[in-house]
Design a protein that fits this description.
The chain is 46% helix and 13% strand. The chain is α/β, with parallel strands linked by helices. The protein binds nicotinamide-adenine-dinucleotide and D-Mannitol-1-phosphate (44H). D-Mannitol-1-phosphate binds next to helix 10.
Length: 470
C-alpha cells in the first residue's frame, strides 16, 4: 500500500523556524504564500515557516497533521510559451492551530519573538465586523476579532508588533482590517496605549494576489499518487503564473526577500491600478460566468472557454462593459485581458465553477457591482451582460437549480426573500447588508433584474445569453 506523505518518508527536508502567522489554510494560501516561502527558503533567503491558523471551526488542520504539514504543489500551464509541469513538496508550514480546539495555543503565538509577519486569506467574507465578539471569547467569531485578541496579548507582553499583509480580494484589505481591529479595540475598551502600539508598532499593508489555484486534482488524484509514490490528501494544483502586489514600505523588500528570490512581486506605495485591472478583468468575469455556466450544465472555466456562446459572453463582457469603465491605459487593459483569456483556457487546470461560486454574493459586490454602477452613472443605462449575470446569481441563490455555497446569514436572507417571490427583487436589492447600499435606488435595475429573472425562468441560461451577445 502506498504510504502517506510524511517527514519520515521524505528524509532530509529542512525544518524552518516559525516566522509567519497565516490565517487560512485553504488551497490558495498553500499554493501562493507558502509556496513563495518555500522558494525563498530553497535559495537560503528566508529560513522561515508559517504557522497556520484556521479562521473557522471546519478546516484542514487534522489532515495537515496526518502528513506532518507537508503537501505537494503541482504547477501546470504555459509560461512564456513553455509548458510547465512541476511538482514540489512544500515544507514551509510548521503546523496548523485551530483556535476552536486549542485557544491557548493560538494566544501563545503572541509570545514568540521570532514571529514577524501575519498573512491571511479568509475569503472576501472574512474581513468583517461581527457584533457581539468579545475579548474573552475563546475564540471570538470573526477573523479581525481573533486578530485583535492576539495583538492585544502581544501588546500586554510588551513585544514588538507585526507586518500584516492580508491577501483577501477586497479593496484596501489592509486598511479595512486595521479599521475593524481598531473598532474592536475601542469597543472592548483596550485603552489609548494599545491604540498607540497598534498604530506605531504594526504595519498593515494592502495587497493584491493573482494566481489561479484550482486546488485538489480530484480527477487525476489516483494517477498522480502513483507517479509521486505517496498519498497526499492535500495536493494542490496551480497555474505557474503568479503576481503579488504589496502596498507597503520599501524596507519590506529586504525583510521579506520575495523579489530577490526572483518572484513576480511588486512592493509599491500605490497598488490601485494593479488592483482595478485584476479584480475587475479577471475575477469579475469568473464571478459573472459562474451562475450562468452552472445553470447551463458547464463545470469548469475551460468548459466556458470552449463553448462558443459563453466565450462570446466573456469577451464582450470584458471589451464592452468592463474595459471602458476602467481608468487605465487602453493598451494595458487589452493586453491584460488577452493574457487572462489565455489563463482561463489553460488546458492543464480544472478550475471548477462550483469552487469559484463560494461566497458569490460578496464576490459580486466587490468584483462587478462597482463597475455596473459606474457604467449606469456614466452611460445612463445598465450594462446588459453584467445585469443578466446578476439576475442569474440571484436566481442561483434560490438553491433549486445549482448548489449554493455561502455563509448561513447570507443564505437565510435569500431564503426569506425567495419565500415571497412577488416581492423578491425589491426585498433583495434593498438589502444593505448584502450590497452596502439600497440597489432599488439604481435607475432601472429592479425592472431589468425582474425581466432577466423571467427570461431565465422561461428559457435556459444559454438561450438567455444568446439574446444578449452579438
Ligand atoms: N483559488 C484561487 O484561484 C484563488 C486565487 C486568488 C485568490 N483566492 C482567494 O482565496 C480565497 C480562498 O480560496 P481557496 O481556493 O483557498 O479556497 P479554500 O476553500 O481552499 O479555502 C478557504 C479558506 O477560507 C476560510 N474561510 C471560508 N469562509 C470563511 C469565512 N466566512 N470567514 C473566515 N474564513 C473563511 C477557510 O477557513 C479556508 O481557510 C478566495 O476567496 C479568494 O479570495 C483564491
Ligand atoms: O478564489 P475565489 O474563490 O475568491 O475566486 C475564484 C477566482 O476568481 C479566483 O480564485 C481567481 O482565480 C484568482 O483570484 C486568480 O488570481
Amino acid at each position: 500500500m502506498t504510504k502517506r506523505l510524511s517527514r519520515s518518508n521524505q528524509p532530509g527536508l529542512p525544518v524552518y523556524p516559525e516566522r509567519m502567522i497565516q490565517f487560512g489554510e485553504g488551497n490558495f494560501m498553500r499554493a501562493f504564500v507558502d509556496w513563495q516561502l518555500q522558494q525563498m527558503n530553497n535559495q537560503g533567503l528566508f529560513n522561515g515557516s508559517a504557522v497556520l491558523v484556521q479562521p473557522i471551526g471546519q478546516g484542514l488542520g487534522a489532515l495537515m497533521a496526518e502528513q506532518d504539514n507537508l503537501y505537494t504543489v503541482l504547477l501546470n500551464g504555459i509560461m512564456q510559451e513553455q509548458t510547465v509541469n512541476s511538482r514540489e513538496i512544500i515544507g514551509s508550514v510548521s503546523r496548523v492551530i485551530s483556535p476552536y480546539e486549542d485557544y491557548a495555543a493560538y494566544l501563545a503565538l503572541a509570545e514568540d519573538d521570532g514571529l514577524e509577519f501575519i498573512t491571511s486569506n479568509t475569503t472576501e467574507a472574512g474581513i468583517a465586523y461581527h457584533a457581539g465578539d468579545a475579548l474573552n471569547d475563546a475564540p471570538p467569531k470573526s477573523f479581525p476579532a481573533k486578530l485583535t485578541a492576539l495583538l492585544h496579548r502581544r501588546f500586554e507582553l510588551g513585544k514588538k508588533g507585526f507586518v500584516i499583509i492580508p491577501c483577501e480580494l477586497i479593496d484596501r484589505n489592509g486598511e479595512k482590517l486595521r479599521e475593524i481591529v481598531q473598532q474592536y479595540a475601542a469597543e472592548w475598551q483596550l485603552g489609548d496605549a494599545f491604540a498607540k502600539w497598534l498604530e506605531e508598532e504594526n504595519t498593515f499593508c494592502c495587497s493584491l494576489v493573482d494566481r489561479i489555484v484550482p486546488g485538489y486534482p480530484r480527477d487525476k488524484a489516483a494517477q498522480l499518487e502513483a507517479e509521486l509514490g505517496y498519498l497526499d490528501n492535500l495536493m494542490v494544483t496551480a497555474e505557474p503564473f503568479l503576481f503579488w502586489v504589496i502596498e507597503g514600505p520599501s524596507w519590506l523588500a529586504e525583510k521579506l526577500p520575495l523579489t530577490e528570490a526572483g518572484l513576480n512581486v511588486v512592493i509599491t506605495d500605490d497598488m490601485t491600478p494593479y488592483r482595478e485591472r485584476k479584480v475587475h478583468l479577471l475575477n469579475g468575469p469568473h464571478t459573472a460566468m459562474v451562475p450562468l455556466g452552472m445553470m447551463a450544465g458547464l463545470e469548469t472555466v475551460e468548459d466556458v472557454m470552449n463553448d462558443e456562446t459563453f466565450l462570446r459572453f466573456v469577451k464582450e463582457l470584458m471589451n464592452d462593459e468592463l474595459i471602458p469603465m476602467l481608468d487605465l491605459p487602453a493598451d494595458e487593459l487589452t493586453s491584460y485581458s488577452a493574457a487572462v483569456l489565455e489563463r482561463f483556457k489553460n488546458p492543464f487546470v480544472r478550475h471548477e465553477l462550483a469552487s469559484i461560486s463560494l461566497n458569490s454574493i460578496s464576490k459580486f459586490k466587490s468584483r462587478l457591482l462597482p463597475v455596473l454602477l459606474r457604467y449606469q452613472q456614466e452611460r445612463g443605462k445598465l450594462p446588459e451582460l453584467m445585469t443578466l449575470a446578476f439576475a442569474a446569481l440571484l436566481l442561483s441563490y434560490r438553491g433549486d437549480r445549482v448548489a449554493r455555497q455561502d455563509g448561513a446569514e447570507v443564505l437565510a436572507v435569500f431564503d426569506q426573500a425567495w419565500s415571497s417571490p412577488g416581492s423578491f427583487v425589491q426585498t433583495i436589492l434593498k438589502n444593505d447588508s448584502l450590497w452596502g447600499q439600497d440597489l432599488t435606488l439604481v435607475p432601472g435595475l429592479s425592472d431589468a433584474i425582474s425581466a432577466n429573472l423571467q427570461k431565465l425562468e422561461s428559457t435556459d441560461s444559454r438561450a438567455a445569453l444568446t439574446q444578449v451577445v452579438s
